Amino acid sequence: MQVAEWNEVVFTDESLICLQHHDGHIQGWRHREERMLNIYVMHHRTGPAPGNMVWGGIGYHSRTPLIRIAVTLNSQRCFSEVLDPVVLHYYQGLATAIFQLDNVRSHVSRIVQMFFVNHQIELLPWPARSPDLSPIENMWSMVDQRLTQPPAVTPHQLWQRVEASWSVVPQ
């Protein structure tokens, strides 16, 4: 791929952004007889941490709108909540674009692949089981870093901060 073509690639991905940024596991050393003393026992909530599943795309000179996804992204939701309303509109504003999708199940499904074929949108070939080296991973990392101080209290507050962090990417 030539340098000029890399300017046309739109890297897309989804990410789960949670209120808790760690799994609660803290390691520490203590003597055997101290093992169950209250000062060493931490109580924390169990189950999945509240948060937001988000989808976005970044290009050389632009970014897609950030989409909040209520639950896990499956192929039908990918089509109805992301591709049809967002990607199609975004793509029409570009002279040319090559979309990059990772190989998660919802992206390689027939309905998603047919969307790109039917609208004649070129896809960047992405090898199966390849390392996650897409530049959008760096964007998710930057968004995550901006959310740590001060920590968000509610999923709604978290969403507002994610949107504000996403807005630093040029349109």
TrEMBL record:
It comes from the Eukaryota. Pfam families: DDE_3. InterPro entries: RNaseH_sf (IPR036397), Tc1-like_DDE_dom (IPR038717). GO terms for molecular function: nucleic acid binding. Residues 9-149 form the Tc1-like transposase DDE domain. Coiled coil: none annotated. This is Transposable element Tcb1 transposase. It comes from Trichonephila clavipes (Golden silk orbweaver).
